[in-house]
Fold this protein.
Amino acid sequence: MEIDIETSSDRFLSPEGSRDYKHEERLRPNNFDEFIGQKRVIDNIDVMVKSSNMREQAMDHVLLSGPPGLGKTSLAMLIANSLNSELHVVSGPAIEKKGDLAAVLTNLQPRDVLFIDEIHRMHISVEEILYSAMEDFRLDIVIGQGPSARTMQIEVAPFTLIGATTRSGLLSNPLRDRFMAHLHFDFYHAEELGKIIQNNSKKLDVELKDDARLEMAKCSRGTPRIANRILRRVRDFALVEGKSSIGSEHVKKSLDLMDIDSSGLDRMDRKILTVIKDYYNCGPVGIEALCATLAEDRSTIEDVYEPFLLKEGFVLRTPRGREISQKAKDHLVSIEI
Ligand SMILES: Nc1ncnc2c1ncn2[C@@H]1O[C@H](COP(=O)(O)OP(=O)(O)OP(=O)(O)O)[C@@H](O)[C@H]1O
Ligand SMILES: [Mg+2]
């Protein structure tokens, strides 16, 4: 069997890597009322923000974890807003030198929020700078080398660090321990996605029929970013066809064009299932061998695709590797791959 290895991970990549970035900004929730779902996370944040405002001190550091596109960056923006503070955004892997992070930290004003995205990919030498900054609002900088080396201490304004990660398991223990709250984002239920789609259809000025909204919510992989992306494509489709109101028939045609099936799986998801089925006799197969066959980066498979396949029970993780379930086999038969 010949396998086409081209990926469609564009659907899931972080906003910075996506050409939909600007549109994404437009659909971001502007206030907590527009931030749908994730009740446990929001309940915790609500108390922390209120307490910080009452104390007039910096909010405790928070670690936000969960698969891409579930709202970590959006929530960080809302938190900074509610604290009436400035948000400084940096990407973990982009900070190459200790001095870069030291410069960011020393520029913070009291109660500012520093958001470090992909914090699990920060260089360890850079990360060490954070330890004393988070705990004592102080930087310990070593100047020089060998016997003449001296430690210099620089004060940092009391700030809040919000770390975002798709893989909290990869965080070092000293860093993880310095976050006072660890909040995990779960995939969204279809009703929640339906609400998000409804709100955003108003922002995009399109009229959606109920069945269209439900169909979109069902195929959005539990992920608001994907729901938004499908919504925009469906809007384009209806516009080109000259329809003022969007029904499920438009949704079905758009999903077809986007190569998304009735369970919300895309080409890469199906490819993962097909490779395990055809090349590895339904598994088990080790993650390294699987990624080599797919010619795909391990972290992309583990961070972007696998969480949803596991959650929906298409893929099973066993001590000997990944297997596909009966549900996956039935699904592949039903879509005739
Ligand atoms: N709870 C929510 N309510 C409404 N819209 C949401 C919610 N969560 C996310 N979104 C929408 O999904 C888009 C993607 O969310 P966001 O960029 O915050 O995800 P993320 O978790 O930071 O992803 P990544 O890990 O890739 O950086 C946002 O632009 C926003 O429109
Ligand atoms: Mg983000």
Remarks:
- The domain at 188-257 is CATH 1.10.8.60 (Helicase, Ruva Protein; domain 3).
- Residues 39-55 form the longest helix (17 residues).
- The pocket of adenosine-5'-triphosphate (ligand 1) is lined by residues 14-15, 24, 27-29, 34-38, 68-74, 117, 166, 196, 224-225, 228 (CB under 6 Å).
